[in-house]
Amino acid sequence: MKSSLAASHALVAVMLALTGCSSYKPAPAAFHEVLDQPYRLGAGDRIRVTVFEQEGLTNTYSVDQSGYISFPLVGGVPARGYTAQEVEKALAAKLRQGYLRDPDVSVEVDRYRPIFVMGEVGAAGQYSYVPGLTVQKAVAMAGGYSARANQGNVDITRDINGKVMTGRVLTSDPLLPGDTIYVRERLF
């Protein structure tokens, strides 16, 4: 009786330990759905605005912490959460209001906001995002895995439409600007 009671206590302890290790669920569907949507600007992005035949307005502009770019003549223009094409339309509309007759505006992303790599890597820190970046490539930029790293999957924290989510993904998964990658320590 005592041995079966001890065995059941040991089984419960192992189950509780394993439950504690799996605090993150696999990535929700929204994690992968956002990859197929147009890129939305955020604080830290830098955009290149070209206004045809207006050299004084053509320049690079950074999206500030409040989500705006400061544009000559028209002032603050909202950019966070908008695509480059939506910002183009907003700038053209503001410039039409007494500044230019028929402005031809083009907006493209000049520099994306950085990603962050933490945990069991050679050099945790902030790294530049480039289109096509995967978890595996980001880990390589961060000095590779440490000797204790779990190399099968990682946890990513991502802002999706203003909601911060964390999910477990494979190392072949693509990244988005602003993602935080956490490489966990393996159990054995």
Automatic annotation (TrEMBL):
GO terms for molecular function: polysaccharide transmembrane transporter activity. Residues 36-109 form the Polysaccharide export protein N-terminal domain. It holds the Pfam family Poly_export. Gene3D superfamilies: Outer membrane lipoprotein wza domain like, wza like domain. Residues 115-165 form the Soluble ligand binding domain. Keywords: Signal. InterPro entries: Poly_export, Poly_export_N, Soluble_ligand-bd. PANTHER family: POLYSACCHARIDE EXPORT PROTEIN GFCE-RELATED. This is Polysaccharide export outer membrane protein. It comes from Aminobacter aganoensis. The lineage of its organism: Bacteria, Pseudomonadati, Pseudomonadota, Alphaproteobacteria, Hyphomicrobiales.
